[in-house]
Write a structure and sequence with these properties.
single chain; mainly beta; eight-stranded antiparallel beta sheet; about 0% helix; globular
Length: about 220
């Protein structure tokens, strides 16, 4: 099976060559590994029937590293409906910056809670340059609730060594897009393809839910 979308919960295994999401652009199912997003314009998009106001988005990624092409490239993202994600009122982007950026390998997230035009609605985590191995799996976990958002990146899996753990306060406005859209990668926004999806990452075991992530085989 390609996983499921049930209310405000999403599971996408991807390693079995199937997906319940919409694949856009060039992407390749790697046997027994997952789905590789080949280019900046590649992504997988899912729409939740019910908005998830507090929970986690987590996934395993292999092949995403600082030597890959791009500038402010994204591992995964969320937004309200469609349109330019950069100026979306409910934007969330988790970034692994590519070799065109001044510090390749820098990890950071941005979340906007309700109004992209208001400075106090835009919240950024600390930006920290890291070194990644293209042959290693990394666990990316973003969690949010009203007032707080955090990103953790670990080597090898959910119990591996933490290489990034940072967050930010998000004020009093809840994260409640009218149409809650999830992306592996990110759509091309106003800054162009080099700021969209981080190319070359292979993804498996996507989990979006208010419930804790289950223990998946091989993690």
């Amino acid at each position: 099976l390609g996983g499921y979308i049930r209310g405000d919960e999403l599971f996408g295994p991807l390693y079995n060559g199937k997906t319940v999401g919409q694949v856009i652009g060039s992407a390749t199912f790697v046997p027994n590994e997952g789905l590789r997003l080949n280019e900046h314009g590649s992504r997988v998009t899912y729409q939740l029937p019910i908005t998830l106001q507090a929970g986690e988005m987590s996934v395993m990624v292999k092949g995403a590293e600082e030597g890959n092409a791009g500038d402010k490239t994204k591992i995964f993202s969320m937004q309200e409906g469609g349109g330019d994600i950069t100026t979306n009122d409910y934007r969330m982007t988790a970034e692994l910056r590519g070799n065109q950026y001044v510090t390749p390998g820098a990890v950071q997230f941005r979340i906007i809670t309700g109004d992209a035009g208001e400075e106090d609605s835009i919240h950024d985590s600390p930006r920290i340059p890291l070194n990644f191995s293209s042959s290693r799996w990394y666990f990316w976990q973003f969690t949010w609730r009203t007032g707080r958002a955090d990103l953790v990146v670990r080597e090898d899996g959910p119990r591996g060594r933490t290489i990034y753990s940072a967050g930010t306060g998000t004020g009093t406005h809840p994260y409640r897009p009218e149409q809650h859209v999830i992306h592996l990668g990110a759509p091309v926004g106003r800054a162009g393809p080099q700021d969209a999806t981080h190319p070359g990452g292979t993804y498996k075991n996507l989990w979006v839910s208010s419930r804790p992530r289950p223990a998946f085989a091989g993690e």
